[in-house]
């Protein structure tokens, strides 16, 4: 059977993707950030999964105001990088896993989550920047990727509790897929940032670090936090952090198993005008390093 081996959590700041694409990661501004990423890159080189379920939000590139799915699952064999106004990023096409997508759709919808299913959709920086952060600049991404889009752009947005419960349901789906696949689930977005208005540039380091603590030790407690607190404390775009709870919900401890092992934790300020976080949590039962 398939299994969830680890969860990865990552900001998806577009400027970080540009720094990678333009070979600027060694510049003084970026060098400390990329040094901070190195342990996660070393870890994934040894722990490359078969499939990543990559939870992110589209930033009005795939979905506009015509359609606002709360949760949308990619069903395709391939997803092209979106043109976000400057041409598509020079990164590989994201290759999907249609059989696992179909199984997750079936299992999660039968588990009472009303997923939207999308068959033809581009993926923006929310998806491609975390891939670049983890894998650098390969010819092809080294694993299949199933994009899961969460609406955190247009209100109303889903609650943290709903996101955590969806992650639990995705775990049940993966663990009932009749093929021996190593599956990771990634939650992206955040950390504190506000891109517009009077509070543009807002960064809240104490709140972000408390969030990282609770992602490790108290995900159920964090899931009870209302969206208003995210926006007040972490800025209008800080609400992206609820997506991390989807990934956290898929870990074994929330299904009665052991707590995950903290493999890596990073907090860096700033990148662009955003706080950056990264976390790698490994399932104790499936650790290849154990
Ligand atoms: C920016 C955009 C994002 O989607 C994000 O999550 C962080 C930063 C930006 O435009 O700087
Ligand atoms: Fe974003």
Specify the oligomeric state. single chain
CATH architecture assignment: 3-Layer(aba) Sandwich
Q: What count of domains describes the coordinates?
A: 1
CATH topology (fold) name: Protocatechuate 4,5-dioxygenase, Chain B
Outline type? globular
Which class best fits the helix and strand makeup? alpha/beta
Helix count equals 9
Task: Write the element-wise H/E pattern from the N-terminal end onward.
Answer: EHHEEEEHEHEHEHHHHEE
Short recap of the structure:
The protein is an alpha/beta fold and about 290 residues long.
Describe the structure.
It is a single chain. This protein is of the alpha/beta class and 290 residues long. It has one domain: 3-Layer(aba) Sandwich (Protocatechuate 4,5-dioxygenase, Chain B). The chain is 33% helix and 20% strand. Strands 6-3-7-2-8-1-10-9 form an eight-stranded mixed sheet, with helices on both faces. A two-stranded antiparallel ribbon has the order 4-5. A hairpin with a 2-residue loop joins strand 9 (261-271) and strand 10. Helix 3 (98-110) crosses helix 5. It binds 3,4-dihydroxybenzoic acid and fe (iii) ion. The site of fe (iii) ion has 6 residues, from loops.
Write the layout of secondary structure elements.
Layout (H helix, E strand, L loop, with lengths): L2 E8 L3 H8 L9 H16 L4 E6 L14 E4 L3 E2 L14 E2 L2 H13 L5 E3 L6 H11 L8 E7 L9 H16 L6 E7 L16 H13 L1 H5 L3 H8 L9 H6 L11 E11 L2 E9 L8
Parallel strand pairs: 1-8, 2-7, 2-8, 3-6
Antiparallel strand pairs: 1-10, 3-7, 4-5, 9-10
Fe (iii) ion binds next to loops.
């Amino acid at each position: 059977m398939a299994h969830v081996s680890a969860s990865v959590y990552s900001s998806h700041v577009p400027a970080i993707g540009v720094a990678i694409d333009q070979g600027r990661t060694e510049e003084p501004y970026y060098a400390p950030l990329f040094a901070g990423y190195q342990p996660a890159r070393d870890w994934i080189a040894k722990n490359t999964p078969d499939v990543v379920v990559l939870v992110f939000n589209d930033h009005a590139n795939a979905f506009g105001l015509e359609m606002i799915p709360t949760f949308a699952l990619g069903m395709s064999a391939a997803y092209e990088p979106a043109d976000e106004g400057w041409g598509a990023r020079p990164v590989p096409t994201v290759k999907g896993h249609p059989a696992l997508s179909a199984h997750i759709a079936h299992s999660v919808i039968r588990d009472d989550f009303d997923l939207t299913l999308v068959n033809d959709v581009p993926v923006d920086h929310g998806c491609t920047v975390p891939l670049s952060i983890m894998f650098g600049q390969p010819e092809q991404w080294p694993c299949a990727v199933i994009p899961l889009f969460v609406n955190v752009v247009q209100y109303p947005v889903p609650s943290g509790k709903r996101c955590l419960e969806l992650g639990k349901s995705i775990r049940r789906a993966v663990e009932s897929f009749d093929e021996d696949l190593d599956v990771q689930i990634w939650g992206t977005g955040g950390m504190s940032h506000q891109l517009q208005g009077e509070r543009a540039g807002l960064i809240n380091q104490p709140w972000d670090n408390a969030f990282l603590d609770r992602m490790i030790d108290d995900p159920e407690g964090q899931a009870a936090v209302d969206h208003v607190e995210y926006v007040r404390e972490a800025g209008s775009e800080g609400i992206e952090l609820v997506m991390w709870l989807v990934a956290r919900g898929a870990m074994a401890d929330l299904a009665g198993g052991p707590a995950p092992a903290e493999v890596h934790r990073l907090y860096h300020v700033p990148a662009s005008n955003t706080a950056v976080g990264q976390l790698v949590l490994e399932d104790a039962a499936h650790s290849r390093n154990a």
